[in-house]
Automatic annotation (TrEMBL):
Residue span(s) of domain Tetrahydrofolate dehydrogenase/cyclohydrolase catalytic: 6-121
Entry protein name: Bifunctional protein FolD
Pathway info: One-carbon metabolism; tetrahydrofolate interconversion
Molecular functions (GO terms): methenyltetrahydrofolate cyclohydrolase activity; methylenetetrahydrofolate dehydrogenase (NADP+) activity
Source taxonomy: Bacteria, Pseudomonadati, Pseudomonadota, Alphaproteobacteria, Rhodobacterales
EC number from the UniProt entry: 1.5.1.5, 3.5.4.9
Family to which the UniProt record says this protein belongs: Belongs to the tetrahydrofolate dehydrogenase/cyclohydrolase family.
The entry's keywords: Amino-acid biosynthesis, Histidine biosynthesis, Hydrolase, Methionine biosynthesis, Multifunctional enzyme, NADP, One-carbon metabolism, Oxidoreductase, Purine biosynthesis
InterPro entries (alphabetical): Aminoacid_DH-like_N_sf, NAD(P)-bd_dom_sf, THF_DH/CycHdrlase, THF_DH/CycHdrlase_cat_dom, THF_DH/CycHdrlase_CS, THF_DH/CycHdrlase_NAD-bd_dom
CDD domains: NAD_bind_m-THF_DH_Cyclohyd (cd01080)
Binding site for NADP(+): G166, R167, S168, I232
Length: 300
């Protein structure tokens, strides 16, 4: 079997189009422009690239983008003061603090100081609790993007066996909650799971979010299963020339694609959907803040 490729890049473009439509309506009918503030502490080059692309896409869909770049040695007090300012700024509907933060900053403390209504990453403890109890919340962007692609491909996910590989707070755990919310039978596998291939081989849906390049190979996959590859790993590619690199997922694409029914590529899969969902969450937060009906099809 050769898997159908789920084109995250094209899907993300459709999500952005929907977002742009809602933004235009908010401007015309309510004179409101959704605003997203992104806070970057330090100068990690990969983070800078990512923040730049978020800012560009935010403006492209008609929203306001506010970028705050702080020195790597910024004190916790100063960072918390900035977040407090953004929490109280009416033109800011979404706040994202780029992770990871430099080691001297307490990530949990910083994230939990964001107004939960503006927490477009969905990492605030209050949003985590709301999601876990099936209440309306801000949903983390990467799992939301994965859910959108799965729903689009399968229609209903009800009764499917889903295995999430990885138990992180930003992907694995919220992904499992969302799949459970769509009535999947959910297993979370991780580095200590025994006979992990036997666990994944039972799954109709495998979501790989471990951060280990090409760990999941075709023999881990049940024929016809859907594989969502969350990993974005940069590895050396001496075949492309000295010092060259390439992006690969947590799944070994060629062997998985031979067995799976459908698979997301890296790049061009989950990554673009993550940014599209960040924009979607910002519009959702803006509508909620103004007591307006929420955009359909952009939330979980
Ligand atoms: N608070 C916070 N929220 C985040 O959502 C967050 C974060 N911090 N810190 C960093 C990671 C990383 N991340 C990516 C999103 C999209 C691509 C993406 O679109 N990647 C392209 C490839 C890009 C390339 O070519 O390098 C793709 O997969 O096709 C990558 C990485 C969000 N993150």
């Amino acid at each position: 079997m050769t898997a159908r490729i789920i084109d995250g890049k094209a899907f993300a473009a459709k999500v952005r189009e929907k977002v742009a439509g809602h933004v235009a309506r908010l401007k015309e009918e309510h004179a409101i422009t959704p605003g997203l503030a992104v806070v970057l502490v330090g100068e990690d080059p990969a983070s800078q690239v990512y923040v730049r692309s978020k800012g560009k896409q935010t403006v492209e869909v008609g929203m306001n983008s506010y970028e705050h770049k702080l020195d790597a040695d910024t004190s916790e007090k100063d960072l918390l003061a900035l977040i407090d300012k953004l929490n109280n700024a009416p033109e800011v509907h979404g706040i994202l603090v780029q992770l990871p933060l430099p080691g001297h900053l307490n990530e949990d403390l910083v994230i939990n100081s964001i107004d939960p209504a503006k927490d477009v990453d969905g990492f605030h403890i209050s949003n985590v609790g709301l999601l876990g109890t099936g209440q309306k919340s801000m949903v983390p962007c990467t799992p939301l993007g994965c859910l959108m692609m799965l729903r689009d491909y399968h229609g209903s996910l009800s009764g499917m066996d889903a295995v999430v590989i990885g138990r992180s707070n930003i992907v694995g755990k919220p992904m499992a909650q969302l799949l459970l919310g769509d009535s999947c039978t959910v297993t979370i596998a991780h580095s200590r799971t025994k006979d992990i291939q036997d666990v994944t081989r039972r799954a109709d849906i495998v979501v790989a979010a471990v951060g280990r390049p090409e760990m999941v190979t075709g023999d881990w996959i049940k024929p016809g299963a859907t594989v969502i590859d969350v990993g974005i790993n940069r590895i050396d590619a001496p075949d492309k020339g000295e010092g060259q690199t390439r992006l690969v997922g947590d799944c070994h694409f060629d062997s998985c694609a031979e067995v799976a029914g459908a698979i997301t590529p890296v790049p061009g899969g989950v990554g673009p959907m993550t940014i599209a969902c960040l924009l979607a969450n910002t519009v959702t937060a803006c509508c909620r803040a103004n007591g307006l009906s929420e955009p359909e099809g952009l939330t979980a």
